[in-house]
Specification:
six-stranded mixed β-sheet, 53% helix, 23 helices, alpha/beta, 14 strands
């Protein structure tokens, strides 16, 4: 008897649908962040987002083998990484991720409860959080009278068959009006159904989370039953499961889809506050789960301490997107950095590693290092400026435009960290050094600046603002950061290594020697420092 009951119970249970994992565009992922009420000045700007490869990094957080993060969790991860998190919120999220790491047995049940979110086919942040969205329209009079049209249709058919052929006139009028409703609103109803389906997935996840054994998520306890009721109210009656094709007939002859469309528009508008709460709780929990899964088993990471605006400590920092990343350490107190190193040694990679760790620490509270104390400041990068044939801008013009943006941010009254790679490479050497020295001197006065350059003369010129550091390769092939400016360059020596003949090599060495003698005859290392003193 018990076996028979179990069999019937299994038949009655609704099977968990396979996750859809719809491929959302980056603009969909960014939608929630765009609707938030926060100070945009603290956001990472578009070029910094691209320069630091944060889109690729976000993808690594959103996918763990076949287990992917839904659009809800991805939107929260994006918002945290792009805008940062306040210290109180960071403490709460750190506690939950830490609890998940300490109790990994909680992860699998939570994942099963939230898997329904992955079946959402559209993003719902704009629907729930856009304060500029127009109110839900009331149903038009024709839609409100749809049941009367259905009654007219039935009575007219009966009259035409039993009384008089004139009854077909009533049939024609009723069908014309019913079809007109479908022609006008059917496409909207179809698109709206995708939104209500996504909301039902959200409500389903809420109803499955009971709070027992759930780290720091007692807020879910009061949502289960209301979420279930609202989900049922958003659903259409499953007529097709009783009579094949009943839903289609209901649409054309009763306008059930159009009536449901207007009814659920009003229902969602009334319940926006409750739906927002469900969204926030489920999406935040899924984001924390994604971070816990990402960190679980990863050895090279640490929780980050928050430091002052001009203090920075990164011990054995690595880039998470590189499989064999060199671990580099640096400590700053008051001054920024002028970074030098031979061609191909990894200066640009270091800047990206530092910038990504700063962004991750500000948004998630951890970074990829043995130990770190980092300022929770917006990062601005200038690393991949390019010329534009369509806009008629040369590389140097693009670099100047970006430098003006950095100066405006640094002098706007907010502390920022500026990362600059090979500044002003789009013009000749003399003017590049002159413009770079002037801009960096102003920039480093108000911001924490880390700049890499092959123009080594900038090192002594900016020593009063930027501490000289260099990346060197040891005898064992490993890299390390140490104080000082690069002593021996390798740009000329690479000619022979890359297949140029001896004649080209000798000529390049003679010109390099002449240039070195020219620079040595000028004592201008303190030309900017004199102005400061």
């Amino acid at each position: 008897m018990s076996a028979l009951k179990s069999w019937f119970a299994c038949l009655a249970q609704r099977p968990e649908p396979e996750p859809l994992d719809y491929p959302f565009a980056p603009s969909d992922v960014a939608r929630l962040h765009g609707l938030g009420k926060h100070d945009r000045a603290d956001d990472l700007d578009d070029q910094t987002w691209r320069d630091l490869l944060l889109e690729r990094y976000l993808e690594t957080l959103s996918q763990d083998g076949t287990d992917k993060v839904s659009i809800f969790g991805r939107q929260v991860l994006y918002r945290r990484l792009r805008a940062g998190v306040s210290a109180p919120d960071a403490a709460v999220r750190k506690a939950r991720v830490q609890r998940l790491l300490e109790e990994p047995d909680c992860i699998a049940p939570l994942r099963r409860s939230l898997v329904a979110l992955r079946s959402a086919e559209v993003e719902t942040a704009a629907l729930l959080f856009d304060e500029q969205a127009p109110p839900a329209p009331p149903p038009p009079a024709l839609v409100a009278r749809a049941p009367l049209l259905t009654l007219l249709l039935v009575l007219s058919i009966a009259a035409a068959l039993a009384v008089s052929p004139l009854g077909w006139i009533g049939v024609g009028v009723a069908m014309y009006l019913l079809v007109a409703m479908q022609m006008r609103w059917r496409d909207r109803a179809v698109e709206w159904k995708k939104s209500t389906d996504a909301l039902q997935m959200l409500l389903r996840a809420c109803s499955l989370l009971d709070g027992s054994g759930l780290p720091l998520a007692g807020d879910f306890d009061g949502l289960r039953q209301p979420a279930g009721r609202l989900s049922r109210a958003l659903a259409r009656p499953p007529l097709s499961s009783v009579v094949p094709g009943a839903s289609e007939y209901g649409d054309w002859f009763v306008a059930s889809n159009i009536r449901h469309y207007f009814a659920t528009l009003a229902l969602v508008a009334r319940e926006r506050g409750f739906l927002r709460r469900c969204f926030d709780l489920c999406a935040e929990l899924e984001a924390d789960l994604a971070l816990a899964r990402h960190l679980h088993g990863r050895r090279h990471w640490c929780w980050t301490e928050r430091s002052g605006a001009r203090t920075l400590v990164l011990e054995a920092g690595v880039h998470p997107l590189l499989d064999a990343a060199a671990a580099l350490s640096i400590a700053l107190d008051g001054k920024g950095v002028f970074l030098s190193g031979q061609n191909g040694v990894g200066k640009s990679t270091f800047l990206r590693m530092l910038g990504l760790n700063l962004a991750v620490a500000r948004g998630f509270g951890f970074c990829y290092a043995k130990r770190a104390a980092l300022p929770a400041l917006p990062v601005v990068a200038s690393m991949q400026n390019e010329d534009s044939l369509l806009n008629g801008h040369s590389l140097y013009i693009a670099e100047l435009a970006r430098a003006r943006e950095l100066l405006a941010l640094a002098t706007g009254g907010r502390a920022v960290v500026c990362l600059v790679d090979e500044i002003f490479r789009g013009t000749n050497h003399e003017e590049s050094v002159s413009a770079a020295a002037a801009v960096l001197d102003e920039l480093a006065r108000d911001a924490l600046v880390v700049v890499s350059s092959h123009n080594l003369v900038l090192g002594p010129l900016l020593a009063h603002r930027l501490a000289p550091w260099r990346i060197v390769q040891g005898a064992d092939g490993g890299l390390r950061l140490e104080p000082g400016v690069l002593g021996r360059t390798n740009g000329v020596s690479l000619l022979a290594e890359r297949g140029f003949d001896a004649a080209v090599q000798r000529k390049a060495e003679r010109v390099a020697g002449w240039l070195a003698r020219q620079r040595g005859s000028e004592a201008g290392a303190d030309v900017l420092a004199r102005e400061v003193s």
